[in-house]
Each structure stands twice: as structure tokens, then as C-alpha cells.
Amino acid sequence: MKGRMRARPSRRWSDYYRAVEGRPPRETLLFALEAFAAEEVPTGRAIDLGAGAGRDTHELLRRGWSVLAIDGAANGLRKLELTAPAQAALELRCLPFEELDELPQARMINASFALPFCRPDAFPQLWSLIKRSLPPGGRFAGQMLGEEDDWAAEPGITAVTLADLRHLFTGFQVEHLVEEKKEGTTAKGASKFWHLHHIVLQRRAR
Question: Is 98 helix (H, G, I), strand (E, B) or coil?
Fold first, then answer.
């Protein structure tokens, strides 16, 4: 990777929303939803952290979940509000992760490619809120950046080691964990080395 220009993380979310518009929901979300379906668990409340313009929120609503969509960028939530079905059970909250001090109880928490954008100093509090929000049997789905990712050393980015993951997974059953390392591109086409952990967890009985 030496001698290669690294992509830098961007907070220009309107460009990102345009780049991913029309793409299907994330596979980790679908894995978790199919696991609920296999258990014949009724739908309930879901929280979509970093919901953006609603790539995953729309799938949750389509399947009958009520959704609290949280994002720090108002433009994405406005787009989500405009494109959601008129009678959708949707609540919007515009707030950065660093300012969250509570989350309601939810059967499902989704955070697709969102948690790395929580500042490292605020991440432990956010993860604690996620754990407290999920009841036994509830699920978390999302991604975390590994320490070899091009963005791992960037200011404000949270990346994790395997030892970090073992600690974070305390109290959960790991249902899906795939580590991915590859040369690729960002949603906006910039070259980047990705080191990702794709994760689905189920909350154990306390």
C-alpha cells in the first residue's frame, strides 16, 4: 500500500446519498431480518443508526417494522421523509452519535457503515447505549472498520482490532462475522483499501 494516494473520509453526505441511490439494502440487515423471520418473531421497533436517505430504513418499513431513523445530516433525513410511504411508522431524529444520551428499547438496531464515523472518544458510550437498548433476542447488524483500513488512522474515525471485537461482543451471540480485506473504491469512486468486519449479533439473556 506504500506510495499510493489514500482516499480520505468525506462528510459531504449529499454526494454520498446520490452515489448510493437505488442500491439494495445491506446484506447484514437482510441476514438479521431473515433470522427474525425464521424464528417467526413479529416485527417491532427498529433503530437505524446513520440512516441517511433510507437505503436500509425503506426495507425495514416495507417489512412492517416501525423505525426510529437517526442521522447527524439533516439532508438525508429530509430525503427519507419525502420518499417514505405516507402511513409509515417512521420517526426521524437529527443528532450526531456523539450527542446521543439514550436510545429507546428496540428489537433491531441497524448501523450500516455508520459506527466508524463516531469519534473514538464517544464510541464506548454509543456501544453501551446499543447494548442497553436491545432486549434478549434482539439483534444488531452493521459494519466496523478494521485497523488496516485506509481510514483507520484518520481523525474522528473509529477502527477496531479483533481483541476490541471480542470485548464488544460480550453479552451477544455472534451469528454472522465476516472479515473483508480488499483493494476497492469508495461509493464515490475513489481508490481505497478496505478492512471491514460485517457483523450480525443477537443479544443474550442478561
Answer: helix
- Is the confidence at residue 19, as pLDDT, over 60? no
- Classify burial at 42, counting beta carbons within 10 Å of its beta carbon; exposed 0-12, middle 13-18, buried 19 or more: exposed
Question: In 3D, which of 124, 190, 170, 177 has the Cα closest to residue 146?
Answer: 177
Find the Cα–Cα–Cα–Cα dihedral 102, 105, 107, 111, rounded to 10°: -10
Q: 180 - beta bridge partners?
A: 196
Cell of 149: 483500513
Phi-psi region of 64 (alpha: psi -120 to 50; beta: other; left: phi over 0): left
Q: Is the separation of the CB atoms in 17 and 80 below 8 Å?
A: no
Report the C-alpha gap between 72 and 49 in whole angstroms. 9
This model's pTM is above 0.85? yes
C-alpha pair distances (Å), 22 with each of 17, 49, 56, 124, 201 = 10, 19, 11, 33, 27
Is the confidence at residue 1, as pLDDT, over 50?
no
Topology (CATH level 3) of domain 18-43+99-203: Rossmann fold (3.40.50)
Range in 16-20, 80-84, 127-131 the model is least confident about: 16-20
pLDDT of residue 64 exceeding 70, the answer is yes
C-alpha cell at 97: 452519535
Q: Which three cell numbers stand for residue 204?
A: 443474550
Three-class SS of residue 40? coil
- What is the distance between the alpha carbons of residues 15 and 17, in angstroms, rounded to a whole number? 6
What are the domain boundaries of the chain?
18-43+99-203
